From TrEMBL:
<keyword id="KW-0732">Signal</keyword>
<dbReference type="InterPro" id="IPR036737">
    <property type="entry name" value="OmpA-like_sf"/>
</dbReference>
<feature type="coiled-coil region">
    <location>
        <begin position="26"/>
        <end position="81"/>
    </location>
</feature>
<keyword id="KW-0472">Membrane</keyword>
<feature type="signal peptide">
    <location>
        <begin position="1"/>
        <end position="23"/>
    </location>
</feature>
<dbReference type="Pfam" id="PF00691">
    <property type="entry name" value="OmpA"/>
</dbReference>
<protein>
    <submittedName>
        <fullName>OmpA family protein</fullName>
    </submittedName>
</protein>
<dbReference type="InterPro" id="IPR050330">
    <property type="entry name" value="Bact_OuterMem_StrucFunc"/>
</dbReference>
<feature type="domain" description="OmpA-like">
    <location>
        <begin position="142"/>
        <end position="269"/>
    </location>
</feature>
<dbReference type="InterPro" id="IPR006665">
    <property type="entry name" value="OmpA-like"/>
</dbReference>
<keyword id="KW-0175">Coiled coil</keyword>
């Protein structure tokens, strides 16, 4: 009996050990299964993403092929048009070179004109005294010489007649004008926005600032012609009234700046065209 009991106990122990081993193997298998399942799912997702990228690249490649085909067609058409119109590339290059040469010539002419204007301006400013320079402004703007003179140094009070004080200054300006005979001269009168005194104006046939500015410009033109012998065909008189201000008329200083006469010296148009000669003929 004792032996049978030992045998049963031993057998029971073997079965228990075997049962434990089988359970551990099962758990390991289940873990491996879950891991394989997860890897399988990840692989499926990566494969789907790869297929999407391949489809996108194939679509881009197809678009590039279409673009290339259109460009090739356009190039072929351009070459066909060039051949049909018998375009001579060498002739075209010659025309471009000729145009570039003409542009360089224009630049040289402009440089020459600017240089002449600067010499004219320097000669005039050197001839004016310090007192005169306080009331005479000389500038070169866009290839044109502007000499601006205050009205109180040119005209008698409330008048368009030249005063004695202006004679010396106008004589210096006249000398410059005579030295540069290839230049035209525009005399331009300007006023502030204060209406003319009706009582005084009626005695001088001045209706408004238009009349006053034009008469003042005309007085300077005739003074240059009669006193200094400037050719009248080079002279032009014009009035701009109150409509060309350079400062605000809200202050007395601004009004004073606007009451001015400008002597504008410009190259004669025909002389300028002679300088640049004719434009290249179209071929």
């Amino acid at each position: 009996m004792r032996k049978n009991g030992l045998f049963v106990a031993a057998l029971t122990g073997v079965l228990l050990v075997s049962s434990c081993a089988s359970k551990k193997d099962l758990e390991n298998c289940q873990n491996e299964n879950r891991e394989l399942t997860a890897n399988y799912q990840n692989t499926k997702e990566e494969l789907a993403a790869s297929k999407a990228r391949v489809a996108s690249l194939e679509e881009q490649l197809a678009q590039q092929k279409n673009d290339y085909a259109r460009l090739q067609k356009s190039l072929d058409q351009s070459l066909s048009n060039a051949n049909s119109n018998n375009i001579n590339i060498s002739k075209l290059v010659d025309q471009i070179n000729e145009s570039n040469q003409y542009i360089r010539h224009l630049v040289e002419v402009k440089s020459k004109s600017d240089s002449l204007n600067m010499v004219l301006t320097n000669n005039l400013t050197r001839s004016l005294s310090k007192e005169e320079l306080k009331e005479v402004d000389v500038q070169v703007l866009k290839g044109v010489v502007y000499i601006s003179l205050a009205d109180n140094m040119l005209y008698k009070s409330g008048s368009y007649e030249i005063n004695d004080r202006a004679e010396e200054t106008l004589s210096k300006i006249a000398k410059i004008i005579m030295d540069y005979r290839d230049y035209d001269v525009l005399i331009e009168g300007n006023t502030d926005n204060v209406p003319v005194n009706s009582a005084a104006a009626s005695m001088k046939n001045i209706r408004n600032n238009w009349d006053l500015s034009a008469l003042r410009a005309s007085s300077v033109v005739q003074y240059l012609q009669n006193r200094y012998g400037v050719e009248p065909k080079r002279l032009t008189a014009g009035g701009r009234g109150e409509y060309n201000p350079i400062a605000s008329n809200d202050t007395e200083l601004g009004k004073q700046r606007n009451r001015r006469t400008q002597i504008i010296i410009t190259p004669k148009l025909d002389q300028f065209m002679d300088l640049i000669d004719k434009a290249p003929e179209e071929k």
